[in-house]
Sequence to fold (79 residues):
Amino acid sequence: MINQILNGWKNFLDKSEVVEEVAKSRAKICAACASAKQGRLLAFIKDSLKEIEGAYCSICSCPLSAKIRSNDICPDNKW
Ligand code: SF4
Fold:
């Protein structure tokens, strides 16, 4: 999982069109999910997808800015 999240951060910085399209649809799902929580330590990370900015998944503890741009899976099978 660490490698997948690192890959997600790389994609966060690269901002490829294909990754961002996938991330956009995942962000909508995460934003409506009760497991998405705001993380104080993530508040400084600015994301173009405002609905998940500064949030993390409380099931896997991954920052959503990286997770939605990774090749990881949703731990609750929502995407
Ligand atoms: S990764 Fe899945 S479980 Fe976690 S916040 Fe997003 S939709 Fe919810």
User: Anything to note?
Assistant: The longest strand covers residues 36-38.
